[in-house]
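Incident review: delayed structure delivery

Summary: a single-chain prediction request sat in the queue longer than the usual turnaround. Root cause was a stuck worker, restarted by the on-call engineer. No data loss occurred. The affected request and its eventual output are reproduced below so the record is complete for anyone auditing the incident later.

Affected input:
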Amino acid sequence: MTPPPPRRRRGTDGSAPPARTLPRRGAVRRAQAITTYGVGSLIAVEQESFIVSGIDDAEGQWPRDEAPVIYEPRLARVLGVSRFRLPPASGDGSRDGVRVRRFPLWHHCPECHALDHVRKFNSPPGRNECAECSEALVPSRFVVACEDGHIADFPYWKWLHRGRRGDGGAAGLCGGRLSLRSSGRTSSLRSVVLSCSCGVPEVSMEGSFRRGALRDLNIRCEGKRPWLKAPDLLCSQPPRTLQRGSSSVWQPVLRSALSIPPWSDTRVHGLDKHWDKLRSCSTVAEIEIHLKYIFDGTPSPVSPERVMELLTAMEAEDPTGEDGTELDQAERYRALRDLEYERLCAGNPEDSGSHTEQFVCEPPTGDGEPLTGLGLVAPMLVKKLREVRALKAFTRVIDPESSSEGHEAELSLAPTDWLPAMEVHGEGVFLRLDEGKVDAWAELPAVAARVERIRDRHQRVLVERASDPARIPSSPATPRMVLLHTLAHVMINEWSLDSGYPAASLRERIYSGDDMVGVLIYTATSDSAGSLGGLVAQGETDRLAQAVRSAVDRAEWCSADPLCVETEISGAGGTNLAACHACVMLPETSCEHNNGLLDRALLVGTPENPSIGFFSHLLTR
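Output delivered after worker restart:
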C-alpha cells in the first residue's frame, strides 16, 4: 500500500517548503478521459481537486494537435458530428494535455479547522496551504448538484445559519469565520460539525444528504457550470448534496459502434475527410475526377466503383420512419445496432478480405452437435473487431441509463463538429438463442409476470427522471432482453474463470428486438488485459457447450439464497429481481445497463417454479 503523503509543514527553522511549479500535472490514461475523468468530472491531483474543462473553452480547450482524429462514419452520423478526437495522452511527451479548473473552491484547514473560499487563505504563490499554520488545505468533502448537471460548492453558511440573517442582512455577511471539525466520536455525518465565530449554535452535517434537505431551507440550484466557465442558468431542479468522490457526481453518456463492412476496411479511412464532396457525385466518372484531385494524381486506395458502393450504402444507412420523417437520435442508434446484428449473423470470413480489414467474423469449425438441446444456435467467432466509444454528454445525480436527453449536461457551450472518443481493438464470441424456443418460453404466464414487474419499476424510474413528459423513453425490459442480459452476465463470470480475462475486461453487447436475440461478449479494453487472446477459443462448440452448462449450474445457487432468489425487489431503482453481487452482477464497466434489468430465475427457475428457467432442463435437481 502506498504510504500517505507527508504533511507539509514549515521546518524547525521556520523556513517554508519549496514552492511547486505551476501548472500542476496529473496523469490519466486516454480511456479514462472518456469513461472516468471526462469533461465535467472531478479529478484529484495530489491533495487537490479539479474539474475537467469543456472541449471548446478558450482557456481549457483540448489541444487540437495532441488530439488525433478518428473516424467511424455510422456513429458520427447518428451523433450529428463529422469526426471524433482521441484525448491528449498523459506521459507520452504531451506538451499540454487536458485543462482543468480548481473545484470545489471551498477548502478547510485540518490544523486550525478554518473553512472558507480558497482565496481567503492567502496561500503563498505555488502552494495550496493555510497561510497561518502552513498546513495543506483540504478541498471540500461535499458538493451540491442537480439532475440537469449543474454543480456548485456546498452552501455551508446557509446550512449553518438555517435562514438566520447576518449583520449585513444577506447570507454570508454575518461577520464571522466558519470552522469545520470532526468530533471523532463516530465516522458518521453527525460527527462533522460546522460552527461560526458569530455565535450561532453548532450544526452537524447530519441530514444534509436527504433528498429534500436543501429545498426545505429554500436553497435552490444556481445553475453553475464551472467546467465551462459559463454564466449561471435559471434552474428549477432541486439541488442534492453529494460526496465529492461519489460516482453520482459524474456519469458518462457513452455511445459506441462496431466497425463493420464496408466501413471496417482501413483503406476507406483515407476518404473520411472528403465524403461531403463525394456525396455530391452521381456517376462513377465524377467520382474518378474527385479522387484524382483528392490524391493529387497518385493512385487511390479505393476504386471509383467501390466509392459508389459506399455512397449507396451510406444512403441506405440513413433510415427514415414509416411516414418518411427523419428518425430521432435514439431510433437511429437502435437502427445502427440492427446493422451490427445482421453483420454478426452473416459473418465476414478472414479469407474474404485483406489485411486491412478490421472486422473478421466466422463460424467455428466442426459441427454443432454439442449445442443440441442447449437452446443455442451456432455461435460466431469474432476474431477481430474495432469499437469506437464516444462521450456524448454526462449526467449527475441520476443514472444515465434511466434518464432522458433533457438531463444530459453538455460538453461545450457551442455546438461542435466533433466529440471525444476512444477506439479499442479486441475479439469476441457472438451467441444467439433459438428464437422459436425463446418465443415459446416468453409466453409462459409466470415468465411474463416476472418481467412485467421489472418493466413497471424501470418505467416508473424513467417517468420520475424525465425532464420532458412528452419524451419519456420506454423501458427495454422484455422477456428476451432480460434473459439475454442475465445470460451475458453469467457467461462473463464463467469465462473470466476459464479464459484468463478478468471480468472487468470483458464487455457485453445486447441485441434484443423483434428479430434479434443475440449477445456479443468481447474484449474491448485499452489496457494489457484486453489483448491476452483466447476468448475466441471459448466459442468453439465443445468448449461453449461445457461453459454454458457450467455457468447455468453456478447460477442455480447464490451464497445469498434464499434471500436472493425470493426477493421481490433489488438493484438500483428496484429494477432487478433475483440478482446480486454474489451471483450475476458484474463490474459496471462490463454492463450496458449498469447492473439493472437482471433476473437469475429466468435462467434456472425458482424452487417453487423451476419451469420459468430457460435453461432449467440442464440442471439436475
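Verification: The longest helix spans residues 445-465.
Action items: add queue-age alerting; document worker restart procedure.
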